Amino acid sequence: MKRMALLDIEALSKAFGGVRAIADLGFVVEENQVYSVIGPNGAGKTTLFNLFSGIYQADTGQIYFLGQEITGHKPCRVAAMGISRTFQNLQIFFNMSALDNVMVGCHLRTHSRLWHAALRLPAVVREERQAEAWARQALQFCGLDKVAGMQASALPYGLLKRLEIARALATRPRLLMMDEPAAGLNDTETAQMCVLIRRICDAGTTVLLVEHNMGLVMQVSDRVMVLNFGKRLAEGTPQQVQQDADVIKAYLGGGEADGH
Ligand SMILES: Nc1ncnc2c1ncn2[C@@H]1O[C@H](COP(=O)(O)OP(=O)(O)O)[C@@H](O)[C@H]1O
Ligand SMILES: [Mg+2]
Question: In the structure, which protein residues have their CB atom closer than 6 angstroms to any atom of ligand 1?
Fold first, then answer.
């Protein structure tokens, strides 16, 4: 019997007007890997994440998660199945504490209704405690336990990037998609991010990574796919991809990788 992949993508396409952002794309992500998607600005990387998380609907093709088709599912349903993400542009509530920002993520996984909450039923109180415990664990995992009570607006950018990751992790996902986690970070913060990504994977969450920092990608990834005009240009180990002539020509060799 064929072993079930965590993510199995078949003939996926998505166009915006005349632009084919994702064009007949297929690939497989095995569990317990850091799998990176690289490619020039406009290659379709963020579109891919939006398709997986149910924000965009695919024009054609299928998305399977642990053998179950999730194509066309709504974002909350995808999240409840164990797919979580961070955003290229920070999605933080700046007037809330770090802890509350993370607990917002947990509530995806708890089921309390508003009128239950208003009555403070024991089940609600239990869920609140569960959410807070998971949130605090996620904060600690991301090295943010000391700033849990601070308002997000008071946190430096590097910590806000980690806060988004903590929120995504607090839902206990099987798959975490990270859209440019090192963008805007200095060298020290980037090195710390590299360690964090590896630890997330080692703790049992598969990571799908979009990132422009090639040093980070080549260091942290088990496999790398190069996307160009919505199509797969190459796929393999970091070493294989770095040596691929087409990749060098289209992307890696073209001077600096763009930052978007
Ligand atoms: N919501 C949208 N509406 C129109 N065009 C879009 C939308 N999202 C993405 N695109 C287009 O799809 C292509 C891929 O974009 P994107 O996935 O953001 O690329 P990347 O993340 O690799 O830089 C680009 O040409 C972009 O302009
Ligand atoms: Mg993008």
Answer: 16, 19, 21, 39, 41-47, 260
Classify strands 83-85 and 175-179 as parallel, antiparallel or unpaired.
Answer: parallel
What the block records as the tokens of 44 is 């379709």
- Note the pLDDT tens digit of each residue in 77-131: 999 999 999 988 888 999 999 999 999 877 655 555 556 666 667 777 787 888 8
- Domains defined for the chain, CATH in brackets: 89-172 (3.40.50.300)
Our mutation pick for probing the ligand 1 site, out of 25, 47, 52, 209, counting the most ligand atoms within 8 A of Cβ, is 47
Say what percent of the chain tops pLDDT 90: 77
Indicate which residue's Cα is closest to atom 7 of ligand 1: 16
Amino acid at 83: I
Q: Which residues pair with 223 in a beta bridge?
A: 35
**Residue 49 identity (one-letter amino acid):** F
* Tens-place pLDDT, residues 15-35: 999 999 999 999 999 999 999
**Shortest-distance ligand to the CA of residue 39:** 1
The closest residue, in CA terms, to atom 24 on ligand 1 is: 42
Enumerate residues 6+ apart whose C-beta is below 8 A from 39: 45, 226, 227, 228, 233, 251
Query: What is the distance in A from the centroid of ligand 1 to the CA of 259?
Result: 15
Query: Which ligand sits nearest to residue 21's alpha carbon?
Result: 1
Is the CB of residue 25 less than 8 Å from the CB of residue 230?
A: yes
Does this model's pTM top 0.85? My answer is yes
